[in-house]
Write a structure and sequence with these properties.
Glutamine Phosphoribosylpyrophosphate, subunit 1, domain 1; Rossmann fold; alpha+beta; six-stranded antiparallel sheet; 2 domains; single chain; 492 residues
Length: 492
């Protein structure tokens, strides 16, 4: 395992991507993505390509752990997948089973020790764990374990499950079931020993996880787009509370607890997941187009062009345009090369209008009434900057349409959100937000409209099978927090 960061000073500010400091905290961040392979001779290489497809879920660190049935080989490092792994590194990771991880930290420290998969030695040999999500009751479990003698090596809440497993007198599978039943929160786990792989999700299915096949091998991924990348066939979603055991006997489908109310994170549909991924029988691009159509039905405004904030809102903008008959245009262009190491401009250059991440297309919006489609408003800073970009490019009117309800409550299940008091929708009215972002009009998609637009196999379930807590404050698990506190999401 590498123990140093190559070629850069890691300051923790690389999410800036050319935006001002306020903007860094004005877009939601998914915590991580996981990918697993069981029974393929090129497990490490498949994991590399699978993680590359999931890179949007975490850009801080990447790691892969492989077993050949007798020993672990692993590498993890700070950086993007393509920076962490090269051909020689992958060649050194020989084995037919692997779990991989891309990470974006929240309250967990941004340091190599927290990069996953986490690898441990315990009485039955080697253990590797990769997680997507957040364990809400991790602090109390950690205190309990520390008081009874456990010594933690990381600040990641993933480590608690390793200690719970190690302290159990039972076999690995039974110990894992016991440990999983202790956890409260939203999580998807891949756990691996030298001869077994376990796959599990929380009882509500808050964090996504899917299963695929490639020949005789089983694959697991946070999003189905990873299967498309490696040529695998999607089998199904992993069900809430399910535990899969893969070993020399093949695949055993089991459970560690009963499924509770299905509540997959609504923001996976709205924003986080790639548009070519599917959840619960619903394609994300198609669902986002339906959100745009529903938005048009609920909040039509006469205008000359419709544009979407790239990249996550383009599908919804197309839907809005199709429903209204207003032409869809690329009124905003994203500069894909303003990466994490982009040199920030001076204040003088910023004041002169240096725009790095987004640019408005003057030839499209000048003299036009523009409908700007976006997926969410968190603090309002980014929305105001984008509206002003369009105005500076000559737009005569800017009407903002948000294809989700007002985001007014913090997340505890693996999304990095500001504290409640920093969420603009928690304290301001629609009219006040509209004025704050300098728009001519503002509308949010209704809760009912969002549920109807997403549809899918879970459409008949409460809330359409989704967690809508960030919109309606109805958390599917018990959470304890102060109104002005930021939730602790250190899951990966």
């Amino acid at each position: 395992m590498s123990h140093e960061i190559k070629g850069r000073l890691w300051t923790g500010d690389y999410y800036n991507e050319g935006m001002g400091r306020d903007d860094v905290f004005d877009k939601l961040k998914e915590e991580c993505g996981i990918f697993g392979v069981f029974g393929h001779p090129e497990a490490a290489t498949l994991s590399y390509y699978g993680l590359h497809a999931l890179q949007h879920r975490g850009e801080e660190s990447a790691g892969i752990c492989v077993t050949d049935g007798t020993r672990f080989r692993y590498h993890r490092e700070m950086g993007l997948v393509k920076e962490v792994f090269d051909k020689d590194r992958l060649a050194s990771l020989s084995g037919s089973c692997a779990i991989g991880h891309v990470r974006y930290s929240t309250s967990g420290d941004s340091r190599l020790a927290n990069a996953q998969p986490l690898v441990f030695k315990y009485r039955d040999g080697d253990l590797a764990i990769a997680t997507n999500g957040n364990i809400v009751n991790e602090p109390s479990i950690r205190r309990e374990l520390e008081q009874s003698g456990s010594i933690f090596q990381t600040t990641s809440d993933t480590e608690v499950i390793a200690h719970l497993i190690a302290r159990s007198p039972h076999d690995f599978v039974t110990a894992a079931k016991e440990a999983l039943r202790r956890l409260v929160g939203g999580f998807a786990f891949l756990m691996m020993t030298n001869d077994k792989m376990l796959v599990a999700t929380d009882p509500h299915g808050l964090r996504p996880l899917t299963m695929g096949r490639l020949g005789d091998a089983y694959l697991f991924a946070s999003e189905t787009c990873a299967f498309e990348t490696v040529g695998a066939e999607l089998i199904r979603d992993i069900q809430p509370g399910e535990l899969l055991v893969l070993d020399e006997n093949g695949l055993t489908e089991d459970r560690y607890t009963d499924m509770k109310r299905r509540a997959i994170c609504a923001m996976e549909y709205v924003y986080f997941s790639r548009p070519d991924s599917d959840y619960n029988g619903s394609n994300l691009h198609s669902a986002r187009k339906r959100m745009g159509r529903k938005m048009a039905q609920e909040s039509f405004v006469d205008a000359d062009v419709v544009t979407g904030v790239p990249d996550s809102s383009i599908s919804a903008a197309i839907g809005y345009a199709e429903e209204t008959g207003i032409p869809y245009e690329l009124g905003l262009i994203k500069n894909k090369y303003t990466g994490r190491t982009f040199i920030q401009p001076s204040q003088e250059l910023r004041e002169q209008g240096v725009k790095m991440k987004l640019s408005a297309v003057r030839g499209v919006v000048e003299g036009k009434r523009v409908v700007m489609i976006d997926d969410s408003i968190v603090r309002g800073t980014t929305s105001r900057r984008i509206v002003n970009l369009l105005r500076e490019a000559g737009a005569t009117e800017v009407h903002v349409r948000i294809t989700s309800p007002p985001f007014a409550n913090p997340c505890f299940y693996g999304i990095d959100t500001p504290s409640r008091k920093e969420l603009i929708a928690s304290s301001k009215t629609m009219e006040e937000i509209c004025k704050e972002i300098n728009a001519d009009s503002l509308s949010f998609l209704s809760r009912e409209g969002l549920i109807e637009a997403i549809g899918g196999h879970a459409a008949h379930e409460p809330n359409g099978g989704m967690c809508l807590a960030c919109f309606d404050n109805d958390y599917p698990t018990v959470v304890e927090f102060e109104d002005d506190a930021k939730p602790g999401c250190g899951g990966c």
